[in-house]
Amino acid sequence: MNQTYVTLNDGNKIPQFGMGVFMVEGDAATKEACLEAFKLGYRHIDTAHAYQNERGVGAAVKESGIPRSEIWITTKLWPSEYGEGKTAAAIEKMLARLDTDYIDLLLLHQQFGDYLGAWKDMEKAVKAGKVRSIGISNFESERLEELCEAASIKPSVLQVECHPYYQQNALKARLAPYGTVIESWYPIGHGDKALINEPVFTALGGKYGKSNVQIILRWHIQEGNIIFPKSTNPQHINDNFDIFDFELTDEEMDAIRRLDNGMRFFNMSLADQEKNLGQFVPAD
Question: If you placed Cys at 114, which of 52, 64, 82, 218 could pair as Cys (CB 3.0 to 4.6 Å)?
Fold first, then answer.
């Protein structure tokens, strides 16, 4: 079984499994982690301006020797970069940091600021060939529908917290009219021990010769979620990707679906999120 792909609402095919570099500190460490992932067959890296390691991602892509067309780069704009004209300039800087001619997937990182003005510039970037697909991250309030209804190009993905304890079925129903798919951060519930050690994962791990984490990641793949667990440990990078040689049955998938209990690990209010985010402006 090989790496799987998801066809987005714009027709582009995204590798369903990638590696995230959130909280990987510095370009050097990021480059090394990405190069290790590329050696193992990864072809999707998820970064952001706010992570301050886009240059490391770009350097790894260059040094990998893999054709640029075979690697999918996802990155994100920060609210301080939102607004017509302002976002266009931010995209140019992003292309320079990544040292690439185009971005495969560009997201609005948070649902604050002039996101409607930013979206207009993102649509223009798609038409100019500077960006292939556009989407959003952390839009779960009524601002989700506001943006989708205003958009000429509908968001291809929505990146949110999603894991077996919080499966986002109601959100998926809201996204269905737009053809938008879920990308999961916290795919293993922020490493929560209670989640990872659920008996169903232990039993399935024993059956398939896999770890509990690998069972969870495999569940995401079969649910149609796009995932990108983060690691800088070569063994973990390898283990995370080693989930394409088995398949869970319908009954096993249903058993995992029954774990959904509405528990999320990020619970900050919108007001507090906006206050905290306003205190941070990423450096160029």
Answer: 82
